[in-house]
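dude i think i finally got it to work??
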Amino acid sequence: MIVAALLGAFALLLVLGMPVAFAIGVASMLAILLSGESVVVASHYMFAGVNSYLLVAIPMFVLAGDLMLHSGMTKSLTNFADLFVGRMRGGLGHTNIGGSIFFSGITGSATADTTAIGSVMIPAMSENGYGRAYSTAVTVASSAIGPIIPPSLTFVIYALAVGNISIGGLFIAGLVPGLLTAAALMVMNHVISTRRNYPKREFSYSARQAFTITRKSLIVLVMPALIAFGVVTGVYTATEAAAVAAAYALLIGLGMRTLKLRVLPRLFFNASKTSSIMFLLLATSSLFSYVLSTQGVPADIAAAFQGLTDNPLVFLLILNITLLAIGLVIDLYPAILIFGPIFAPIAHSYGIDPIHFGVVFCVNLIVGMNTPPVGSGLFIGAAIGRVKIEELIREITPFILMQLVVLALITYVPILTTGLPRLFGY
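look at this
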């Protein structure tokens, strides 16, 4: 009864439009009251959910991304991508996807990727003969690369949710799946562009132009390299790496005079506001997880899976289907915070590598975020691209299918996610 009340209240509050963090908190408090426990436990578990030094990484990563965004670095990254892939058929589509690869190392956020890359590439693609809905679909689909390739705020949140897992290991493990996703999207873009005879860049850059584009881009791309190098070599922790990234972004923006001092207070405030939302989610999700644990829900779910199969491959198949459904209706971070602590121990009981499972878990929810008919990424993309949601769904479906192929690959070929972390000692 208590679990039914918890889930029913949570669903009802979401339908009524209450913010997710508050819906989780109110539903959890109702369940505690129904159980007869003292409400004092709520403050204890909510505090425990945010009592971690690792959380300092969140505002630092958010701030670093905002600083780079407002330093006008997006154009240099898309030019850098165009340098390599612009001469192919559907070159601007490839450039859009390539830009997401480079941009992911700055923000690690799908929404930031869609907004920044989309504001440049959607008009450019539309003006060069690509359908606006198709241009938006490429942008939304490629935004899934951002939360996978390091540095990934998604992996930081996952590590906080489940505990006892290396953020550095997750960062490295996300590299191959991220690049595979980009390659799969480029294959589909090439097929569609060839069929529709979309244009390609007809001119070649001079050596001087190529050098200028590369120089400007490398200044930006040093930031993800700094983060990856420091975390992998152990020079600094993921939290310290986030601070290094923010400091570097600030120095570059001010040094190149593309970042104005007058916008800094607004950027600091935005980083604080965004981070506070995540902290509230962490706090209320910790309480939500406590209620589920006291009611024996994780054990019941584990027993249900064990009753269905003792084969880890079948378990992963069922889990993938379950997570895709979850990703359709619940935003990425709340889904990680609620379901990560439940499914990670179950995966461990099947002998699945924690890093492998963490990547599969997160990638699955990321794909669900952009999957028709109700993935939240679709509505963000439709608003940015100014297209009808049904047109966007029609154009993005082939790209989602390619992402599902990549998801199947990383699920059933573990070396794709565990190979690099093992090489670096994780």
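The chain has a mean pLDDT of 85.
im so relieved honestly
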